[in-house]
Description:
Plavaka; 57% helix; two-stranded antiparallel ribbon; 3 domains
Amino acid sequence: MRVYHLCFDIFTSSLKRAERVGHLMPDGSGTVRFCFTPLVSHIMDLAEQRQAAIVLTNQSPTSTASYHLFGDAAQCPPRTRQHTLNLINQACLRADPNDLEAYTREAGRLGLLGVHEPYWRDWGQAEPSLFLTPDALHAWHKFFFDHVITWVINMISGDELDRRLQALPINVGVRHWKHGVSKLKQVTGREHRDLEKLIVPVIAGAVSADVLCSIRALVEFIFHVQGLLIYDDHKHTIDQALLEFHNYKNEIIKAGGRHGKRGAILHFKIPKLEGMGRVTYNTAYMGAPYQYTSDITERCHITHVKQPYHQSNPRKCSEQIARSMDPHQKVPKYKSLHPFETYTRLALPQ
């Protein structure tokens, strides 16, 4: 884990310097401007957020909540940079950071990983509770498929859910689930969103009214937090939707929705659920969270890795994938500089 933060330290050193003294950089129109580069957002999933916040898996990366508080509606104070740095100082007083085993043991007792120099420590006033922004793709959409759909399947059975989805009439613009969803393993964010639109009316009548209220509240929360502009009344609606879920969530347990390999699960200690309660706090300082979604970067896995891989010789494919980006970047630039010449070369016979 120390290597992770050391690597970030190295390749963000120029950004840290620019944050302190500024740097001349061209904007989108080519105008050179004097810019500063504070750490505003580090977009990543929950596991990576824990690495950045240097906390154990039973701790929240953005608040002081620990595992036994993850299912509560009440929110804990934010995990500020000063709070984390103070814990690091306490761990350093108990054990020498150069003694990795001893330091990791003492840091673990404080809920930290064995890292004493997080990469953001000297990046201005970088605040982990703020720059670890909510990621819509992983924090909400994947949560919906991994948990909410699983609860529904446990309550009404996968066959019944599939039957109801298959019975829906085919409409333009609405995905038709002719094979159902209970057997799906690999799905994309697009499928997550399509299910969110349908799940409440599909399960109506198959679950109790209170269970339906809890599921509807979560879906309402997910739809509201994706707003491009979020005002105070929107934040109130978001908080009320999450509070409504917490008021009815025990009905899901009573209906058998929370069930694991070892039997019934009688709690909602889910890390991503705890993170949902931090959305309005983060929005007040950082703006609408949907601007920080990882949808675009995840899409790049297809356009910049998978597609070039299929066009390459599988042997030493990494170099071929990297080189394939050159012509894709140079051709549009050449066309923009020589539009007429490019047209005549293509249009006129040789």
